[in-house]
Write a structure and sequence with these properties.
By secondary structure, the chain is mainly α. About 75% of the residues lie in helices and about 0% in strands. It has 11 helices and no strands. Helix 1 runs antiparallel to helix 5 and helix 1 packs antiparallel against helix 10. The termini are far apart.
């Protein structure tokens, strides 16, 4: 219950802040509308990623928080303030990692101009995040914690509530998230060099 609540929470936060923008990225490239954001005196990745907020999912957010509170209440033990703080930090890290991974696949449209099949690959890989990482064999668990760190979306945050506070996982979550944010920014600017405006 805690894992599913954490997964739903990260998913709905991603849908509120990033999903509509990620889905529109390929359209921006095809129609040449990306050019308008590239010439503005602001970070182009930020403009493309945070143009719109989907407030319609706010009701889902309240329902999921209620489900998560019910699920954590079934654990039968109290949580320290540090434990709750670490959980919330890791949830935020999970949302940003969700964004980074989706954006890495989405930005391929700058080079390929038609990344529909690439998006299909992403959705298949995202299925690895929908199960606790402890269920996977060692090699696959290593994969979802490092190379494609989808385990940080829900598995690692929920572990903080179920198994107790862990400074190791908190540090790992912050480190992996920071690394992928930097990687995303670096690859975005590299991909823009390959971008040929559709309006030119």
């Amino acid at each position: 219950r805690v894992f599913m609540g954490s997964l739903f929470l990260a998913d709905v936060l991603f849908m509120i802040f990033f999903m509509e923008n990620m889905d529109a990225l390929s359209q921006l490239v095809r129609k040449g509308e990306l050019d308008l954001y590239l010439v503005k005196p602001i970070n182009s990745q930020f403009m493309v990623s945070c143009r719109k907020i989907s407030a319609a999912y706010t009701i889902n957010l309240f329902l999921i928080v209620g489900y998560l509170l019910w699920g954590t209440g079934r654990l039968g033990h109290d949580f320290s303030a540090v434990q709750i703080f670490a959980y919330l930090v890791l949830v935020v890290c999970g949302v940003f990692l969700f964004y980074c991974l989706r954006f890495l696949f989405g930005m391929m449209v700058l080079v390929l101009h038609d990344a529909g099949n690439i998006q299909f690959v992403w959705f298949q890989l995202y299925r690895l995040a929908t199960r606790p990482d402890i269920l996977y064999p060692t090699y696959l668990r290593y994969f979802v914690l490092t190379i494609l760190p989808v385990a940080f979306i829900a598995s690692v945050p929920s572990r903080i509530l179920v198994e107790g506070m862990s400074w190791y996982w908190l540090a790992a979550g912050l480190t992996v998230t920071g690394t992928f944010l930097c990687l995303t920014s670096f690859l975005w600017h590299r991909a823009l060099r390959q971008y040929a405006s559709a309006s030119s």
